[in-house]
Design goal:
17% helix, 109 residues, 2 helices
Amino acid sequence: MKQHGKPTASITDKATVDTQFIKPIFEKLKKLSPEKVSYNQNEKDSFTYPASFFWDDGRNYSILSISIENDGRIRNKYIAVTKDAYRNNAVFGLKFPTPPASPWYKYMN
């Protein structure tokens, strides 16, 4: 986040985490993206958080994905690709043209 600045776009998801893990995870994410993190009032130990961030700096696309497991483990995946490499289908996991069902469809075409 520090390297790329404010994301071009982000996607939220919901996590349900064991009570002993939820507070430290929630607080870390709240510092990262305060407007996108909130407790789900009607669901025990559940909160909404930014699960993916997308950046377009004009020459490159970057995507950071975060998933939170029920036991509190956090997994992340970071992809950075030049637009040329993306358009040449040089990166496994990214398809050009972007499928309409992709959350990044309006940003990567």
